[in-house]
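// run 5 | inverse folding | seed 20
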């Protein structure tokens, strides 16, 4: 009963964004903000409050060159089967990137729900994922790096204004075993790792496009092609990554690497094919990203994304000193169509909406990386090659 009363007070505080007359363990004065009140409460939660993924394999050694990386997103843990996830467990790879919407923790059935302060539904979704045999098989088969997107963040299309984002971060980091690593020491879920010796080094940069992102500009023509939900913003103050993450990214791009995978849960290179969430909805931020890569002279950048419920390949010239490629892998088991007529000025071939995952096969002697879209049985359905040396 006391906990329920406390949550009512916290929810009221989160709604009005002002201090309130509530009592929180460890706080002897009225909290100055909703964030402060919730943070104090979250510090009291026991370890068993958080779901945990099955034990996974350690990441490859820092001096081990990678030759094959698998990529996937959009996994509805409530659906009984996920053939693409089963196939990933059977595939050979050095690393698997699960890059967002790893659970659907903000909906009940087919309707979106409003998560409460304890994020009960999000935690239940992660518990359900951990109990799945196909996910357990993947954890036993491949080392993993992870990013989140809106549905495993806790609210559809949400950004920095999501009031329970700090608990969502705790749930994410504890589930994936990241809380005692560097990423657990700062706000947000971004982190990076490098593998391989000089001349065969791959850097994987996992961005956080949720925790710090300002609101997007709603469309003025709902559902119209290219303006389905959001339109590009003219507000110079809108932000995708937040000041600290931008500084961190600049430092990462100055580290030596031959091939760099910049993983963004939402698309980067795609600009004019749709009006859903993407870097193109914040054009100043996209310009800033390209500018930072140019300024740091970062070589070998390839973008990797998910989110779209369609797998796509892109190539864009003129924004970097070399062609900018993007592999969008989506979705594992939340497919909405068999075909799509979506086109973007940078798109390579047709999109692939059925269940899928992506693969990046690296040929160090040739200095190339094959970006592939795989059907849920492992068949290659789309492919392009990147020359990064």
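// decoded
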């Amino acid at each position: 009963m006391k906990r329920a009363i406390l949550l009512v007070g916290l929810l009221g505080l989160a709604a009005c964004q002002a201090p309130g007359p509530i009592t929180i363990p460890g706080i002897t004065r009225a909290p100055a903000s909703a964030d402060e009140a919730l943070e104090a409460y979250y510090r009291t939660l026991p370890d068993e409050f958080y779901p945990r993924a099955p034990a996974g394999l350690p990441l490859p050694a820092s001096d081990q060159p990678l030759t094959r990386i698998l990529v996937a997103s959009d996994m509805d843990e409530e659906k009984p089967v996920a053939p693409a996830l089963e196939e990933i467990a059977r595939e050979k790879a050095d690393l698997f990137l699960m890059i967002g919407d790893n659970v659907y923790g903000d909906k009940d059935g087919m309707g979106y729900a409003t998560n409460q302060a304890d994020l009960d539904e999000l935690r239940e979704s992660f518990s359900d994922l951990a109990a799945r045999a196909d996910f357990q098989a993947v954890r036993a088969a491949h080392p993993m790096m992870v990013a989140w997107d809106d549905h495993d963040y806790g609210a559809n299309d949400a950004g920095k204004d999501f009031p329970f984002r700090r608990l969502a971060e705790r749930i994410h980091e504890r589930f994936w075993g990241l809380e005692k690593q560097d990423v657990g020491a700062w706000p947000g879920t971004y982190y990076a790792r490098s593998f391989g010796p000089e001349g065969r080094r791959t850097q994987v940069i996992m961005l956080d496009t949720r925790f710090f992102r300002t609101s997007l500009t709603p469309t003025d023509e709902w559902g119209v092609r290219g303006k389905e939900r959001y339109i590009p913003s003219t507000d110079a103050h809108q932000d995708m990554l937040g000041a600290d993450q931008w500084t961190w990214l600049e430092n990462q791009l100055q580290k030596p690497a031959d091939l760099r995978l910049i993983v963004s849960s939402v698309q980067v290179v795609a600009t004019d094919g749709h009006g859903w969430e993407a870097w193109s909805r914040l054009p100043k931020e996209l310009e800033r990203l390209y500018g930072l890569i140019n300024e740091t002279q970062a070589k070998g950048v390839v973008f990797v994304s998910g989110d779209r419920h369609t797998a796509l390949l892109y190539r864009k010239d003129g924004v970097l000193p070399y062609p900018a490629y993007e592999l969008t892998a989506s979705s594992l088991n939340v497919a909405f169509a068999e075909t799509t007529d979506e086109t973007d000025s940078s798109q390579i071939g047709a999109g692939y909406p059925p269940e899928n995952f992506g693969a990046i096969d690296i040929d160090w002697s040739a200095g190339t990386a094959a970006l592939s879209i795989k059907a849920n049985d492992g068949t290659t359905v789309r492919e392009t090659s990147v020359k990064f040396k």
